[in-house]
Design a protein that fits this description.
Elements (H helix, E strand, L loop, with lengths): L2 H13 L8 E6 L4 E2 L5 E2 L6 H12 L3 E6 L10 E4 L3 H13 L8 E5 L6 E3 L9 H4 L7 E3 L13 E9 L2 H14 L4 E6 L10 E7 L4 E8 H12 L3
């Protein structure tokens, strides 16, 4: 076995908590990639670092973890990782994974940290679009993407935590609380993006929002943020 895998298995023995035994945790991460043609795409700057850190944090507490991501792989191969690109691929793997969760298990969590595209090209072209054929100006037509969170079947045993990135600090909490209610979530992790915690950064600042309260996590490395989110998600 790799030295890192041995290390993380030993860390799991030391850090595991009985609450997370036999619990399934599914985490999505990274930005979706929506093809325009076979060489171009629409995407975003999400690195998947926070999702990878969350996967490790839940693993070390004793949960069965599956990371579905277009971004970074988890720190240890002991964590199941499914790599995807498009929203369709993400949703397919996610629904398939949810369907495999044993109904008699000790409960399950879904942490939706992926940055899913709001829109995608109306037509995906084969080959490579040539500028000579397109002309001096080219209009790319987009259509609204499927809402992944709204497509997830609800159950009493599945706790769902959404992630929301905002840049307008004045309205960020209003939008996050609206998301919490509209999409019937158990919690929302609000990320107000600044220069300090922008996409691809190793640091983050999160407001953990439930119907009852908001807990602010100050700027810290993403591993520390992930460990705190694990602690806050247990009582949901």
């Amino acid at each position: 076995a790799d030295v890192e895998d041995i290390f993380y298995h030993c860390a799991k023995v030391l850090l595991r908590e009985s609450f997370w035994n036999d619990k399934d945790v599914i985490i999505t991460g990274g930005g979706t990639i929506e093809k325009i043609d076979d060489v171009r795409c629409l995407t975003n700057f999400s690195s998947g670092k926070q999702a990878s850190a969350l996967a490790l944090a839940y693993f070390l507490k004793g949960a069965r973890v599956c990371l579905i991501t277009s971004g970074e792989s988890p720190a240890t191969k002991a964590i199941e990782c499914l790599h995807v690109k498009s929203t369709d691929e993400l949703l397919k793997e996610l629904l398939n994974k949810i369907s495999t969760i044993d109904a008699t298990s000790n409960g399950a969590y879904l942490v939706m940290a992926a940055a899913v595209s709001d829109y995608l090209p109306s037509i995906q072209h084969k080959g490579k679009l040539k500028k000579e054929a397109l002309g001096e100006n080219y209009t790319l037509e987009l259509k609204q993407n499927i809402d992944v969170l709204s497509s997830i079947p609800r159950s009493k045993t599945l706790k769902i935590i959404g992630f929301k990135a905002e840049m307008d600090a004045e309205k960020a909490h209003e939008h996050a609380k609206a998301m919490l209610i509209k999409k019937a979530l158990d919690a929302v992790c609000l990320n107000i993006i600044t220069e300090e915690n922008g996409f691809g950064s190793d640091k983050n600042r999160i407001d953990f929002i439930t119907k009852e309260k908001t807990i602010s996590l100050p700027l810290s490395n993403k591993e520390s943020i992930a460990r705190t989110i694990v602690e806050l998600s247990a009582p949901l």
